[in-house]
Write a structure and sequence with these properties.
By secondary structure, this protein is an all-beta fold. It has strands spanning 9-12, 15-22, 27-31, 36-37, 45-46. β2 and β3 (27-31) form a beta hairpin.
């Protein structure tokens, strides 16, 4: 996804977060935020923040 006014990308310590402009509501929304990871049939663990 290319970054534009309609499709912003925020670069954060956890990684890139893709978003979109909800023009009807006048807000920027985001998707793809990873809070946790898990192997199949395993309990999820918190996603660690990448060190600089």
């Amino acid at each position: 996804m290319k970054e534009t006014n309609l499709n912003p990308i925020w670069k954060c310590p956890i990684g890139a977060i893709k978003g979109w402009n909800d023009e009807k509501k006048g807000v920027l929304r985001a998707t793809g935020i990873q809070y946790a990871t898990a192997e199949r049939f395993e309990m999820p663990t918190a996603k660690s923040i990448k060190a600089d």
